[in-house]
Hints:
CATH topology of the largest domain: Fusion Protein Consisting Of Minor Coat Protein, Glycine Rich Linker, Tola, And A His Tag, Chain: A, Domain 2
Radius of gyration: 22 Å
Number of helices: 5
Number of strands: 5
Helix content: 25-40%
Order of helices and strands: HEHEHHEEHE
Shape: elongated
Amino acid sequence: MTVKKFLIPFVLASLAGHALVIALTARVDMTGGPRPERVINVELKTPTEVEPPPASARSEPAAPAAHATATSGYREDSVALQNPGGPYESYLLQIRRKIEGLWSYPPQAISEKREGNAVIRFTIDAGGALAGYYITSSSGSPILDEGALACVRAASPFAPLPGTFNLSLLHVTATFSYRMN
């Protein structure tokens, strides 16, 4: 009888630990119901060389930067973060994994049963820093839009752009699809 009493706390601790692991894997909500499906669409378009913005449109024009631009070549490219392929495939997969690891359905949107697609365009500089971001297409819900923007902010900084890209900036478009089951 004393052996059974001795084992009960360990069995309960084991059950609690397993419940915690299951909850942390985001497979089951602690309330017992399934979590809403998390969908991120990632699309790659054929890269095209983009002309650099005029000097007056750049955020911080400086003489040394202008000199570096003239000697090393200022190049930008735009891609969509869906179905990776092409020259940026491995880099975009890193970005996608990082974003997916941080992305969650905003709790308020779940309680209000909000759904939608937020399309975010963000720019990564050569060093991997987030150079800018904005909503290109709203989900129709400020809560969902802010959730997508917050995820992109939280995912930065990214890995530096590989030298083989020969880019100063990479513009990435990501679609955050919020759907309830």
